[in-house]
Structure formats: C-alpha cells, structure tokens
C-alpha cells in the first residue's frame, strides 16, 4: 500500500512560511496538498501546493515543467514521493531555496481556488454503514439493510459536470415531486434539500479497459482524498429512485474542496481495517493483509451550518455533527478501486469517487439532516433560536476534516463550503 512514514512527517519540522507553523493551521509543512489556483489577471489554472495561508506555484519552483494538474496526477507513486520530499526540503526553515521560492508564493486569500483537477467521471458509493442503517430504518424498520449491502460496495454513476469547487453557490433544484396525499406529481422546487458529509477519492493513474486493478495495486491509482458534499433533494429522491436509483435528486450539485490531501501525507493516520464481530469477511478479491493492517484512514469530520440570520449577526454557525471516516466506512479506499474495476471498467485520470455519507453510530454523528431530523419529523434547534428540518435558502453548509495523532503534526483538508440560493423560476 502507498505511503510510508518518513522524514517529511517529522513533527519538529518548521517552515520559513511563518503561517505554516501556526498550531491550528490545516496546511503545515507535513501536509503539502495539491490543488489548482489562478491569479486575478490569469485565465489559466496553475498547480498549487497549500502551505499555511499561502499557495506555492509548483511550476515556478522548477520542480515540474508544466502546470497541468492532471498530468502530475499520473506520476508513479515513487516519483510523487520524490516530489513531496523536494517540496518539504525546499520549504523548510533554513532552506537555500527560500529566496527563489518566495517569489512563487501567493496569499491564498488573493487567488481563486478551483476544483483540484479536471474531473474525468464521478461515482458515488454508499460505504457508511451507520448512515445506510439509519436511513433504512426510516423506510424498513424491521430490515434496514438490504441483503447485498454487506457483500457489494454499493455505488451509482453521478454527474461530473456538476461537481463545483468550494465557495461556488448552488440553486435550489426543481424536479418532479409527489406528496403522499397528491394524486399526481408536480414540477416544483425541492422542499427537502439536504447535505451529505462525504470524502472524495481522486484517481490519478488510469487502467486500461478490461484490465482489473487488484487490491494490492489499488492505491497506486489514487492521488488522495478531498472533502465532498453530495447535495440531495430528498423529496425528489423518494419519488424517482426506484427502480433504477438516484437521478435528478442527486445530479444538480456536488461541492468539492480545492485541496487533495495525498496518500503520502496521510501515512501517519492509517488504521487497521476491521469490521464488527459477526460481520462477514469480504470476498477474496477484496481482501489483503495490507488492507487489513492499515487500509483505513483516521480522518475526523465536521458539518457546520450558518443561517442568513447568523451571518448578519457575525455568528460563525453551529456545528451540527462530528464523525470519523475509519469508524463510519464499511469498505476501504483500496476495496472501492478494486471493486469498481473487477468487471473490466476503466478508470480515467481525474475520476472522483464519493464515499457516501459518513455518519457515526450515535445520533449526534449523523452526516445528513435526513438522519438528524428523523426524516424531517424532528426539527433541530440552533443556538440562535432558529430551527431546521432541511436546508433553507441562504443557508451555508461547511464541511471540515482533519487528522491528528500523538507524535505527529495535525493536518487538515481546508473547507468545503457552499451557500444555497433560491430556485430559478
């Protein structure tokens, strides 16, 4: 599996970029995530590396020849490790590269951050067993999980064209909805708009059609992880999803954070992959000793909601839930890559997998309002006295993620943020 702990993870390392040494930064020297940015006078995107509150223009460092992020993502893992080591050494306190590289820095607040790469395709999985169970109980109280859930990494094909960068707003979608008392459906704006707390898995290296990726090689095809909010229109979903699954209820917007935290940066935060007692073992093609030993990633996740009234009052918003990727997921990153290709499906450079909603086992760890409000029947009370069952116009949803472990520097994912606007007439 990709990602051994090495000298780039040393918690004592300091950077000549002062903001990278702040204890609460998401982007210390030990992180170095990749993304794309452009200056206000530029029309083309450049490859950026987040360091503290700054963006390092990778091409201007002289370490790469072009500014094509998707080309960089195709690098072999060993070449990527060398690049990470060169970046770490050049950004360390006392580096001889400081005079040259200072000119390659831009304040993050003064550039536009976009999607981290050109997106190839998008698959949304359903790996959160606590979410699947909680939602299943709303519709099938006596048998919430369908029989195949424990055997097959469930997923569906989403729309890459509506993946949007953090900060890009969205409109409340319209589609067919049918209330229980109505005789016929109607075209209307959704009244049950929801967020989903997810991670995105970014594919760097493709495979040829007809050539499956074995689980031992799966992570060689993955660049890293991002935050992902896969917006859902729950009333549209309940009307359209059978017999073929989500369609207009899911394809109108998915918000993605701008930074990809690489598997190399995540090496200190791996965990053994183990299921609860009594769960069946995966089929052999989804099993390996490495995957059992360190296939899970310990990523803490949060959802925040800021209403228009909060924003007007200078209130940062309320944290609605916290969960953890390793504790929420029934399948690992490597298993998803392997299963996606076992039938010969080819993955493309820049493909993104959504994990599905990553809820924890407790009610306060729910990764969606559908769970937090018991399907809209139990509104939640906010700290300023407002109440919510689903997302309302003007609300801002912010996802955050971070990894922390004793003996290592905390690293973060930045923000995945979007504000909901009214439906188009």
Please give a quick description of this structure.
With 425 residues, this protein is α+β, with helices and mostly antiparallel strands. It has helices at residues 69-73, 77-91, 98-102, 129-139, 234-240, 289-294, 308-312, 325-328, 333-341, 369-372, and strands at residues 34-38, 46-51, 54-57, 105-107, 112-113, 122-125, 155-157, 163-165, 170-171, 174-177, 186-189, 193-194, 197-203, 222-230, 232-233, 254-256, 261-262, 270-271, 296-297, 300-306, 318-324, 352-354, 380-381, 387-388, 396-403, 411-421. The protein is built from ten helices and 26 strands.
List the defining traits of the structure above.
eight-stranded mixed β-sheet; alpha+beta; 26 strands; 17% helix; globular
Description:
By secondary structure, this protein is an alpha+beta fold. 17% of the residues lie in helices and 26% in strands. It is built from 10 helices and 26 strands. It has helices spanning 69-73, 77-91, 98-102, 129-139, 234-240, 289-294, 308-312, 325-328, 333-341, 369-372, and strands at residues 34-38, 46-51, 54-57, 105-107, 112-113, 122-125, 155-157, 163-165, 170-171, 174-177, 186-189, 193-194, 197-203, 222-230, 232-233, 254-256, 261-262, 270-271, 296-297, 300-306, 318-324, 352-354, 380-381, 387-388, 396-403, 411-421. Strands 6, 7, 8, 13, 14, 16, 17 and 22 form an 8-stranded mixed β-sheet that branches. It has a 5-stranded antiparallel β-sheet with strand order 4-3-2-1-5, with no helix packed on it. The longest helix is centred in the N-terminal third of the chain and has 15 residues, at 77-91. The model has no long low-confidence stretch (mean pLDDT 96).
């Amino acid at each position: 599996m990709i990602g051994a702990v090495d000298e780039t993870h040393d918690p004592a390392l300091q950077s000549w970029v002062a903001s990278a040494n702040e204890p609460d930064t998401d982007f210390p020297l030990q992180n170095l995530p990749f993304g794309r940015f452009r200056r206000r006078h530029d029309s083309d995107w450049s490859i950026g590396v987040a360091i503290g509150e700054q963006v390092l223009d990778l091409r201007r460092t002289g370490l790469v020849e072009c500014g094509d992020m998707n080309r960089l993502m195709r690098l072999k893992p060993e070449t990527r490790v060398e690049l990470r080591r060169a970046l770490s050494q050049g950004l360390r306190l006392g580096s001889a590269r400081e005079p040259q590289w200072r000119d390659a820095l831009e304040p993050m607040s003064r550039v536009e951050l976009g999607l981290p790469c050109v997106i190839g395709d998008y698959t949304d999985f359903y790996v959160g067993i606590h979410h699947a169970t909680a939602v299943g109980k709303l519709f099938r109280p006596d048998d919430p999980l369908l029989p195949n859930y424990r055997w097959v990494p469930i997923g569906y094909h989403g729309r890459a064209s509506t993946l949007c960068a953090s900060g890009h707003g969205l409109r409340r979608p319209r589609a067919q909805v049918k209330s229980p008392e109505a005789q016929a459906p109607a075209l209307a704006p959704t009244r049950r708009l929801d967020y989903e707390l997810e991670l995105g898995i970014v594919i760097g290296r493709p495979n040829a059609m007809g050539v499956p990726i074995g689980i031992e090689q799966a992570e060689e095809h993955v660049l890293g992880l991002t935050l992902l909010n896969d917006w859902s229109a729950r009333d549209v979903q309940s009307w359209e999803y059978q017999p073929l699954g989500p369609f207009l209820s899911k394809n109108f917007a998915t918000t993605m954070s701008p930074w990809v935290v690489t598997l190399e940066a995540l090496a200190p935060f791996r965990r053994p992959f183990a299921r609860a007692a009594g769960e069946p073992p995966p089929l052999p093609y989804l099993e390996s000793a490495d995957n059992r030993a360190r296939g899970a990633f310990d990523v803490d996740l949060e959802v925040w909601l800021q209403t228009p009234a909060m924003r007007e009052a200078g209130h940062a918003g309320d944290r609605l839930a916290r969960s953890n990727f390793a504790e929420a997921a029934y399948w690992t990153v490597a298993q998803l890559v392997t299963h996606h290709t076992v039938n010969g499906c080819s993955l493309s450079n820049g493909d993104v997998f959504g994990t599905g909603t990553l809820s924890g086992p407790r009610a306060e760890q729910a990764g969606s309002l559908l769970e937090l409000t018991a399907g809209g029947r139990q509104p939640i009370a906010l700290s300023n006295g407002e109440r919510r069952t689903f997302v309302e116009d003007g609300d801002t949803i912010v996802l955050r993620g971070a990894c922390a472990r004793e003996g290592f520097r905390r690293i973060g994912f930045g923000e995945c943020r979007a504000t909901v606007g009214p439906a188009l007439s």
